[in-house]
Amino acid sequence: MSLSDKEKKYIKKVVSSGQDLDLEVVIEVINKKRETDDLIEIEEIMNFLEKITPETKENKKASKHIKKGQELKYSKDIDASVKKTTHITAGVLEELLPAINQILKPPPPKKYTIVGGKTQAYLQQEVRKMMKSGWQPFGGVSAAAFGVSPVGGNQYIQAMVQY
Question: Is the predicted pLDDT of residue 56 greater than 70, yes or no?
Answer without folding.
Answer: no
